[in-house]
Write a structure and sequence with these properties.
There is one protein chain. The protein is α/β, with parallel strands linked by helices and 270 residues long. It has helices at 35-41, 69-82, 95-106, 126-144, 149-159, 174-181, 186-196, 224-236, 252-255, 257-269; strands spanning 6-7, 10-14, 20-24, 46-50, 59-60, 88-93, 111-117, 215-220, 240-245. It has a seven-stranded mixed beta sheet, sandwiched between helices. It is globular and about 50 Å long.
């Protein structure tokens, strides 16, 4: 789907007579991120999935500024317009959840209910954002220096050794996830990290107090950092509810897919 500044690689599937869910994947994910979730949800919904800028087969047709959150959000709204989708549900994971939070707060008329998995509203101070920009820039440089798939795979294995991911490397779907991650272009991923990392994201801590849309915040029991962040988010946003999912770290929909599906189905339908 070609728009002004993007050529989005996207897919519509499921029952077109049912409510639509827009899924937004995380950093290094792609259009297939939620395939197992969609299989389990079955005919209850219609599904829109896409590769975000810097990922998969989506192409940024404008300059590097179009990897940023604000134009990306507008691009997704333009995509919904093109597809004649006036309102939908939204489910976003990690980076895609940060983008989903921005969409919910700036285009509230477009979303019925929102599920955010392992999400932060951004860093509250300029000093924290600057430090994160420097950190992400170093990681981006490392990514751009990778010359083959083996180096990329080593990087991915190191990435998923971070504490927030819990025991994800022991999951039976871990190698399958790595295979999908390896389909990405490291140079494009580096641009995504530079321009839509947490450091560049505008802080949404104050704006979440204005939210009127039913919001479900999901965090894994092993993801202590994001339990703290999301507890604070739920306190600030009266329309938000927080659920901690057992046997999962940061990537709940992979580590405990059944619980993830059961929880979002109950929230979206009722």
């Amino acid at each position: 789907m070609t728009l002004k500044n993007y050529q989005f690689h996207c897919s519509l599937q499921g029952n077109s007579q049912k409510p639509l869910i827009l899924f937004l994947h995380g950093f290094m994910g792609n259009i297939e991120e939620f395939d197992e979730v969609i299989k389990l949800l079955g005919e209850d919904f219609y599904y829109l999935t896409l590769d975000l800028p810097g990922h998969g087969k989506t192409q940024v047709l404008g300059g590097d500024e179009y990897y940023k959150m604000e134009p990306t959000a507008q691009g997704i709204i333009n995509l919904l317009d093109k597809l004649e989708i006036a309102k939908c549900f939204l489910v976003g994971y990690s980076m895609g959840g940060r983008l989903g939070l921005y969409l919910m707060l700036h285009f509230p008329e477009r979303f019925l209910k929102v599920v955010l998995e392992s999400v932060s509203p951004g860093l509250p101070t300029g000093a924290e954002r600057l430090a994160r920009i420097k950190s992400d820039s170093q990681i981006a440089k490392k990514i751009t220096r990778m010359v083959n798939k083996n180096e990329f795979k080593i990087f991915l294995n190191n990435w998923y050794s971070q504490k927030i991911f819990g025991a994800i490397k022991n999951n039976q779907l871990y190698e399958q996830m790595l295979t999908k991650r390896l389909e990405n272009n490291p140079l494009e991923l580096a641009k995504s990290l530079r321009f839509m990392g947490s450091g560049y994201q505008p802080s949404l801590w104050d704006k979440i107090q204005e939210n009127q849309i039913p919001l479900l915040l999901l965090v894994g029991e092993y993801d202590e950092k994001f339990i703290t962040i999301n507890t604070a988010m739920a306190y600030k946003c009266e329309n938000a509810q927080l659920k901690i999912i057992s046997q999962a770290g940061h990537n709940i929909h992979l580590e405990n897919t059944l619980a993830f599906v059961k929880t979002i189905r109950a929230f979206l339908i009722y």
